[in-house]
Amino acid sequence: xxxxxxxxxxxxxxxxxxxCVLYSMVAIGLMILDRHYHQLTGIRRVxxxxxxxxxxxxxxxxxxxxxxHESFATRDALRADKARxxxxxxxxxxxxxxxxxxxxxxxxxxxxxxNAAGVSQKFIVGDVxxxxxxxxxxxxxxxxxxxxxxxVGQAVLDDGGVFGQVARVSELTCEVILVSDPTHATxxxxxxNGLRTVAVGSGDPNHLKLPYVSTAADIVKGDLLVTxxxxxxxxxxxxxxxxxxxxxxxxxxxxxxxxxxxxALDRSRQLLFIWVDK
Amino acid sequence: xxxxxxxxxxxxxxxxxxALVLAIVPLPFPLDxxxxxxxxxxxxxxxxxAPRAGGLxxxxxxxxSIDVVQGMVLGQHAFALVLIAAWTxxxxxxxxxxxxxxxxxxxxxxxVGYQFVLFWIDGATGNPxxxxxxxxxxxxxxxxxxxxSGLLNRLNER
Lengths: 278, 158
Description:
The complex is a heterodimer.
Chain A: H1 2-5, H2 9-13, H3 16-37, H4 41-71, H5 75-96, H6 99-113, E1 120-127, E2 139-142, E3 155-157, E4 162-169, E5 174-178, E6 185-190, E7 196-201, E8 208-210, E9 224-227, E10 239-247, E11 256-261, E12 270-276
Antiparallel strand pairs in A: 1-12, 2-5, 3-4, 3-12, 4-5, 6-7, 6-9, 7-8, 8-11, 9-10, 10-11
Chain B: H1 9-24, H2 29-34, H3 38-49, H4 55-70, H5 76-90, H6 92-96, H7 100-124, H8 137-157
Helix pairs in contact in B: 1-3, 1-4, 3-4, 3-5, 3-8, 4-5, 5-7, 7-8
């Protein structure tokens, strides 16, 4: 076989164009199948299981370092942490006391209005994996996949607010697109007066934009934006961000609104995947 | 004299794997934008050095593995890498006798071509990345070429 292969190199050079065309056709075929017919989700899942050990191998040294760091944390630091967490838990319990009653009330009111937007019931927590995807897209990998029931289009939150949605699912991991990605849009409304609009990512994890607000709209610095529940991905009422700057150019018909996201898009390590009952 | 006689398949697989790891290892903010396409450089190296060992199959598989990890569309990186690897093989005999500077410039052209194909497919499939930052990878890759090819040569001669 080897002797047969090493005949003369000029003979093989001539086949280069043919082979290039062949491989290119296969690649183009893959792209068309993936893009237009969504035929490759199964294949992609299998392939990503093959890549999974590599991803774990890349991420584990960083997790190991974090673990070491925590193991050797000083007693004082741990005590301070414990005191802070107890304080937070007390506050949370205090707020929760009325929560059950309020949730019931909300359900009743929603039922009265026959509103389809439900209240989130079930969730799982996923850890962000230490893997860099494209530096120019706001996407991350999380260690929960189809095996855990995660699905494409699922809403993802962190403890501050709306984080993003699931863009792609493989068997053991999933890819989450952040609300700050330039191609991501979140249906929002101003909590103060119910003004509905769309928050679009800017590519920067600390800024979102509201490109479709007219200069005459009632929106001011400090307004809280919450999800409006339109679009069917995000349940209504979760915080998305706070308006930090409204710039009204008298010559333009649309205002320039800058929003600070509520979620810590570049810092959160634990994310919530939620299921919404309709 | 002919180095292609013993096909360095294991070295090829190993270096490609290391390059794939370098492609996804997390880097702090300013560095992750400057990250060169390590796997592309490795594939170009083997296309020049030993085209018969891996050939376009190496380019295709390497591209496909990037696609699985971070591609928007499956086959995108594979397509770009196959085109650029074929171009490299076409001119490889000339590239081998070039000086370091000429080699770097040629590699720069290849990397720009690769990035352009990706840019074009991203746009055509509706996931455009218009930031200027993505064009930083080719010049940095070309600057690193003397270092990386020297390193790979050293490994190869063991």
